[in-house]
Design goal:
By secondary structure, the protein is of the alpha+beta class. It has eleven helices and ten strands.
Amino acid sequence: MTETDAHETDRWVQYFVRRGYPRARRLASGMEGTVYRLQDGTVAKVWAGRAPEDFDLTRRLYADIAAYPLPVGTPRILDAEECDGVLVSYERELGGRPLRTDGDGEPPARDLPRRETDALLTVLRALASVPGSEVMRRLVIQGDDRPLWQGHSRFSDALAALVERAAGRNRDALAARVPGLADVVSRTAASLRALPDRPESVIHGDLVPPNLHVDEAGRPVAVLDFGFCTTAGDPAFEAAVTAAVWDMYGPDADRHTAELSRLFARELGHAEEVLALYQRAYALITYDLFGMGPHDGHFRWCAALLR
């Protein structure tokens, strides 16, 4: 943790102590903010970059998901407040432990454990059972400037339009690493628009190991951190992105993506070519969200996939 992070952690711990939670402590940090454990099964999330006035959509999203009986827990908002322009939400603490964390230090095993792939299949099936809702269609994918579905009635058309917008955000930087980028973008968008209609379900969009909690036996018990790429859409998109991001940087990352893509195609009924198409789309809509250039692992990963 950097000195700045330590200072911010201490600031918020003291804030929660003053709010009546003397045992408050930092629990975890992710794309959307930092989570603090308070007491009695309650946690607080200090949101990063989320305007308080926009939070009603998130509250309603969680309620839409929780309305369906799932084999895993999902977030529920208990209360929310604003502190110096920063949004703070109070939520029930979800059980289990992260399947794997960034700080583990050990890359995934060359052969993914059966209980790990079984957990992924359980979660993908569970999320695919939650129908897409109007609230989900009003969400904005990180890095964009409008709701994904705005002006569209089909997920594949909305995603194609986002691919074209996102590729233009920092086109020169990506083109320097992806020869023939314009053709890649046009072919990807055209292929998306040619997809047939599919039933829509909730899309988490960031099912990485820290966001999947399991019990001592390795069974999934909770899914965390909706919001980064959450929307209503084709369950095959969720499966494709999960296969791609489950292991992005390990020595066997390509092997794992291929293994999971084959597994999801076989067990969930998705066409492998559609999974590959959605993986290209994901690279095009997220390549610049963390940085650009040789220093940024996500940018390098996206460029390599597109090449």
